[in-house]
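Q: What would this chain look like folded?
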Amino acid sequence: MDRLNLDDFSDLIERPDAGVRQDAEERRERLSVPPGALGRLDELADWLSAAQGSVPVSPIAHPKVVLFAADHGVAELGVSARPAGGAHALVRAVLDGESAVAVLARRTGVPVRIVDAGLDCDPELLPEEIVRRRVRRGSGRTDTGNALTVAEAEAAVRLGMAVADEEADAGTDLVVLGDVSVGGTTVAATLIAALCGTDASVVTGRGGRPVDDLAWMRKCAAIRDSLRRARPVLGDQLELLAAVGGADVAALTGFLLQSAVRRTPVILDGVVTAAAGLVAQRAAFRAPDWWLAGQTSGEPGQAKAFDRMALNPVLDHGVTVGEGTGALLVLPLVQAAAALAAELPLRPEGAEPRDGGDAHADTTAPDPVETTG
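A: My prediction, written as structure tokens:
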């Protein structure tokens, strides 16, 4: 098999249909509510309509949460508040319904799929359908060596591509994408700093479970050392993912690229999915048009990546728990936007939109009318 060339995706990925988006915008202007009265819900509906190629937009019938899981060797340096190699416990919490994303998914009726790309645990600790496609057990320390071999990086990308195809073939019409990892924010920050040409201190955050100042300094040093190894391979995405990425980030990258090929819209969650998106954008500049930035997690690297991809997060609620939680909170808003755009009546030709409470209207009460009799 020939080596995978991610640059080939540039020819495979098209933008969502601009003509459909224009039709959706024109239809929105004829809705019974005043233009602009629904705020950003209008934008969400237009994005989804273009992704579907449908006017009016169709309801989201089969959403799914997809999580890629892995451990990162850099966590051995004490850069995370969680123990190195402990990501399997986070996966177990999702499976047992005890994590935030599991609770929200249960309440909203959205299925959750977890794919083990590189957990550092005995396979027997988790169900076989989760661990059976693992690329390797844990990733190497990126400050002193490669996270993966190039062959493993390619295998992880192909894993993500395969999962994207499986979801598209199964009828999944919107994906909430996240990661389950320990050390993932350090790896993500390294990739973002490398691709954006910034220093370690600019992208180093405190993680989903915030670390103290000493751990933050260790994290910053690890990213700085990893950057020295990332810069020489910036011209090759697979080499970059092998040097300073990890199995989950590589799988996420493949998933995002193939989802764009299959015209499946995706909501991104935290800094790890943002980093994978940045790598994918490097390969195919049109790919981010198929993605929605779900929420801002407060990680400076995530903000840097979203800005580079011209993605504006929908929510800013300070949710840092990860595992797709923040992105899943956006799903009801996208569903509401689709419903309003499709089901609100159109006003008759020439009629004015219904009064939606114009903030600039004259609200002065009229003088009382005197009557006699």
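Residues 150-169 form the longest helix (20 residues).
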